[in-house]
Amino acid sequence: MRCVVFGATGYIGGRLVPALLEAGHEVRAVARTPGKLDETPWRDRVEVVQGDVTDEDSVTRALAGQQVAYYLVHSLHQRDFVDIDRASARTVADAAAHAGLDRVVYLGGITPDGELSPHLASRKEVGEILLGSGVPTAVLNAAVIIGSGSASFEMLRYLTERLPAMVTPRWVHNRIQPIAVRDVLHYLVQAAELPPEVSRAFDIGGPDVLTYLEMMRRYAVVAGLPRRVVVPVPVLTPWLSAQWVNLVTPVPRSIAVPLIESLVHEVVCRDHDIAEHIPDPPEIHLERAIELALARVRDDDVPTRWSDASAPSDPLPTDPDWSGGSIYTDVRELHTSADPDALWRVIESIGGEHGWYSFPLAWSVRGWLDRLAGGAGLRRGRRDRRRLHTGEALDWWRVERIDRPHLLRLRAEMRVPGRAWLELSASPGADGGATYRQRAVFEPHGLAGHLYWKSIAPFHNVIFGGMARNITGTAEHQEVSA
């Protein structure tokens, strides 16, 4: 069938596209920034189009000539996400009806009894809007998704690994029905071929029903960790729990809050009606799902990650189409005896466990301050220790552009009064070796932005100068060692 995927650059969308291809479907991938898909292994097998679910014209163009639309988009990082998601769902629902689609498929969350959090209420509302489109719609509701790179898995992983003893809130005793990401993809792919009379919501879950506390203990067993000591206390609210998750794990507060709010209630499938229409996948128990996820992490084989999705970027202020504004820059250029390829390998491996090649304490302190302010901090790391991809998160940066083996451009996602970029480049030297060029660009917002840049300017020689010297020095050392 001809399938269009909204949210192809996201965690689930980036895995669904190759699964649809493997099932024999034709795929049109929709992305706000199509360049983010250039390095995916399936890029040449799909049609990539630019589109935004908030823009009616681009949605209409994306749906033209298609049969099935997958809606895998939500605006969780934005303050007014409820209004944005409502309007976006209505835009897609109306356009799908006008285009005469055969089916819409949406991945939502299991809705517990009782008062819903804004996040869960919004996910439920989006499903209802799509079901009301007049187009046969399958709303697949899942609880905690376990897979390498999922926000739920990374929260579970880091809480368990980093805290041998922990004080936890009461919600760790609530029952949950997790599901392996492979099983989620199984249901999503099969949903494309549901008969037209099937238009409803289904709960989907794995074979295990257990508490979050049991999940942490089972993770510890699979990971070979000592038994974790857990002391539940009633005073830790979901909000306070989210602050703790924000500090201890890579998952930021903006995602931790809705994740934890969904765990305050029991999230267990009410029925298994989906089995009447889609055969059950091979049962992947929690332990096996954890094993599969950890194996991918160890092998640097994480195809997508929760942090892959990001807001569209504005042009670099020094690009030709930029006009006006005050711009600060810090430019460093060094010649190195290392050849350009050796230099590039160091550039592309920056961040994560390799660090930032200058004043580690200053970077760590800045990262903690950013986490306290609700920013990304340095905890997101990187998916692969050696290779970067356009659009992926790298600590508190976003890979905005990569021209291998010459240029790496990073866009800052830390909390600063302005916008910032960092460019690292390698080129052949005039007399052999290579030339390393490093450029930091900052566009201040208001007086606070100007004061921010001026306050850190005295440290630039230590931080940026040290980075340039250490990157070139590392390249020379690695080349000699090789």
UniProtKB/TrEMBL annotation:
This is NAD(P)-dependent oxidoreductase. Pfam families: DUF2867, NAD_binding_10. It comes from the Bacteria. Residues 303-322 are annotated as: Disordered. InterPro entries: ComplexI_NDUFA9_subunit, DUF2867, NAD(P)-bd_dom, NAD(P)-bd_dom_sf. It comes from Actinophytocola xanthii. The lineage of its organism: Bacteria, Bacillati, Actinomycetota, Actinomycetes, Pseudonocardiales. Residues 7-116 form the NAD(P)-binding domain. GO terms for molecular function: protein-containing complex binding.
